[in-house]
Amino acid sequence: MTTITQSKRQLVWVFDLNKCIGCQTCSVACKMLWPQEDAGTEHMWWMTVNTQPGRGTPRDWETMGGGYNGDGIKLGHIPTDEEFGGGWDYNYDEVLRGGKGRKVHLQKTAGSKTWGMNWDEDEGGGEFPNAYFFYLPRMCNHCTDAACVEACPSGAMFKRESDGLVLRDEDACTGNKQCASACPYKKIYFNEARGVSQHCIGCFPRLEQGVAPACVRQCPGRAAFVGFLDDESSAVHRLVKKHRIALPLHPEFNTTPNVFYVPPLAPAPLREDGSWDENASRIPPETLEGLFGVEVHGALDILRSELDKKRRGKESEVMDELILYQWKDCLGHLTRDPSEIVWKQS
């Protein structure tokens, strides 16, 4: 087992779930920059955005185990390729160039996976007229108490001292997959072609040049924030520490994750007579508590109160922070334009 060295500072992300529109721009930006063309990375999506309620990716990841319990590290299930899903092929040649006309139709070819992330999940939950859904971006949490680091038998994984990123020395990785077993968020992938595990690296080559991670920089909805948690001038510090409206996902996994979420509000449900029930939400409270713990109720109360103040024309620092009038305010200290950098070719 590897000893977890604590970092001097911790870089954190905050995602405002009231502004995420599920456009997948963050996912594609990450995919195009990192696990794009190399053999063995076809199934890798280091950043994913899934519909809630939904099974997520890998499928049913929340039930796969990992993290810590009262007795220490808890190993869990290692996701299979089928559980990661997607990547199926279709009989394009037969349909488009086979000369069979309407006798054939487009269908998956033999050997394709039977399931894909986000497949059939955008239906959401609830029943008409009180249906609901929201989107949940997910990436490596770069946890403070990183179970993957402790579980690594080769010492390949470590927390970087300067910013708290969880990284991996791929030359030292032996492909044991203990990291994937220990990660309760199941955001570690295995590269069969190279025999090593891989995961989000926090865009550290960009960070070292003062450039924000691609997932934050490219978000068109201004839903993503990044910065050092101890930097009182950063939006992430205020959202997490001052206003206390940004919460970690599944805190009961006990890894102290460093990706936080502003929980989603929802319209008031309709009663049978067509009137609004202003004291309730379409999203069941137990659904949000299951994701973010009991503190989600206090965070939602603050959000509702601050939103009401803003609607009545009063000042609200919280709402101004979330509205994000200047988009660079979400980047913390990482405001440099990537087009200014001449990247060295390795």
Can you give a write-up of this model?
This protein has eleven helices and twelve strands. With 346 residues, it is of the alpha+beta class. It has one domain: Alpha-Beta Plaits (2-Layer Sandwich). The strands form five sheets. It has a four-stranded mixed sheet with strand order 10-1-12-11.
How is this fold's topology laid out?
Layout: E1 11-16, H1 25-33, E2 48-52, E3 68-69, E4 72-73, H2 81-84, H3 92-97, E5 134-138, H4 147-151, E6 157-159, E7 166-168, H5 178-182, E8 189-191, E9 196-198, H6 204-207, H7 214-217, E10 224-228, H8 235-242, E11 247-248, E12 259-262, H9 285-292, H10 296-311, H11 317-323
Parallel strand pairs: 1-12
Antiparallel strand pairs: 1-10, 2-5, 3-4, 6-7, 8-9, 11-12
Main features:
346 residues; alpha+beta; Alpha-Beta Plaits; 4-stranded mixed β-sheet; two-stranded antiparallel ribbon; 12 strands; 22% helix
Please tell me the total number of domains.
Answer: 1
Could you tell me the number of beta strands? 12
Overall SS class: alpha+beta
Trace the largest sheet across and list its strands: 10-1-12-11
Strand content: 5-15%
* CATH topology assignment: Alpha-Beta Plaits
Q: What does the oligomeric state look like here?
A: single chain
Describe the main β-sheet briefly.
4 strands, mixed
Text of the CATH class: Alpha Beta
**Helix content class:** 10-25%
Basic shape = globular
Q: State the CATH architecture.
A: 2-Layer Sandwich
The topology string of helices and strands comes to: EHEEEHHEHEEHEEHHEHEEHHH
Instruction: Report the C-alpha radius of gyration, rounded.
Output: 21 Å
